[in-house]
Amino acid sequence: TTPPPNPTTPPPNPTTPPPGHSGDCMAVYRITSTWSGGFQAEVEIMNHGSTPFNGWTATWTWPSGQQISQIWNATQNSSGSSVTVRNVSYNGNVGVNGSTTFGFLASTNGSNSLPTVSCARA
């Protein structure tokens, strides 16, 4: 028998990173608790690069009118539905293959659709 021919072209590589991933910075958003009119969530910032981070920024747009009322392990600035979160002094340095997490409490207007969080090293 003759072996099957080798493929003539390699399989295509993905052309875009998954949501929440920008180069070597990746953000994972998780809702950890919910109640009527509100919820608690955390975002894990991960370094998948070859050098440590000396700071990071996470950004997203709320799809359903949510609003942060309290945040920890980060600072935040909101303008309408746009949110920008930055590291604080003690968690800006993220080693190679390391991660850090911030959390928050937020209110909802009934719906709590998940945002797509992007992150970047500072």
From TrEMBL:
Identify the InterPro entries for this entry: CBD2, CBM2/CBM3_carb-bd_dom_sf, CBM2_carb-bd_dom_sf
For molecular function, the Gene Ontology terms on record are: hydrolase activity, hydrolyzing O-glycosyl compounds; polysaccharide binding
Region feature Disordered, mapped onto this chain: 1-25
State the source organism's domain of life. Answer: Bacteria
Q: Where is the composition biased (Pro residues)?
A: 1-20
One of the Pfam families matching this protein, by short name: CBM_2
GO BP: carbohydrate metabolic process
Which ranges carry the CBM2 domain? 18-122
Matches recorded under PROSITE patterns:
CBM2
Q: What is this protein called?
A: Chitin-binding protein
Per the UniProt record, the source organism is Micromonospora endophytica
Lineage, opening ranks: Bacteria, Bacillati, Actinomycetota, Actinomycetes, Micromonosporales
